[in-house]
Amino acid sequence: MENRDSLQRFMFEHAAVRGGIVHLDKTWQAVLERREYPPLLRNLLGELMAAAALLAASLKFSGSIILQMQGEGPVKLLVVECMSDLTMRAMAHWEGDVVGKSLAELVGAGRFVITIDPRDGGKTYQGVVAISGQSVADALEDYMIRSEQVETRLWLGADGNQVAGMLLQKMPDRHDVDVDPDAWRRAVQLASTLKRKELLGLPAAQIIRRLYHGEDVRVFDPQQVNFYCPCSRERVAAMLRLLGHEEVQSLLREQGSIEVDCEFCNKHYVFDTVDVEQALVADVPTSAPKILH
Question: Which pLDDT score is estimated for 174?
Fold first, then answer.
C-alpha cells in the first residue's frame, strides 16, 4: 500500500472557513504493531489519532496536544499525543469484552481532556468536559463549541489498515475580503456527502476537488505525519530522581531492580543498583516528564 501519511490543509478564499484532511497508514500500523486492540477499540483510537493531527495542524504553537478520554465503560482510557511537527503516539486501556455500537456504550460516563503543552516556556492549557455524543467526532465537536467557541465539524474513519479524517472550522469573519455568508453552511453540506470509503481511500487533493470544485479554495503544501515516541532511558532516570532517594531505594530492596515499560511503544527499561545510583547522582538539569493518567 502506498504511504500516504500526510495532512493537507486548505481554506476558502472568500469565506471564514478552513479545513484539513489527514491520512495515516504507516503511522497507524506503528501503533497497532505495538499492541493488539479489540476492533471496536482500535477504530476509536484511530479516529482519535486523526482528530489529534487535524487539531494540532490548526494551532500555531510549538509543543504537543494531548487528547485523553477516560470512561467507566469497557474502554477505560484513550490517549493520543501529537507534536506540532505532526509526530504522534497513541495507546488505550480496556477491561473485559469491548462491545457496543457507540462511543457512549464503549466509554460510558467519563471525561474528555485536551491538554496543550507549548514546551517553549508558555503556559500549559487544559480543558475538561464530560464525554458526550455517539462518536469521537460528536465528542470533539461538542468540546470545541463549549470550550473554545469554535464551530467545528469532523468526519473520521479507521480500520485495521488505515485512518483518515477531515475537519472544517468556521473562523471569525475576515474584514479584508468580501465574505460569503453562506459558505459555512455550503462547506458542511458538501462535506457531508463524503462517504467513509471515500474518506479512507481517496487522496486528500482528490477529495477537495470532488467536494469543492465550484469553490475558490486555496490548498497548502501537505505536511508529513509520523509515529514517534520520545521515551528514553534518560527520561526514566529523570523520573527516578523525582521519586527521591528513599523511595527508589525502597523499591530496589523489594524488587532487586526497577523495571519500567512505556505504554506507548512497549520499550522495557531495567535499572539495577548501579544504574539507579548513577541516575540519582546525575547532576544534569532535567524537567519533569509528563505522566499521562
Answer: 64
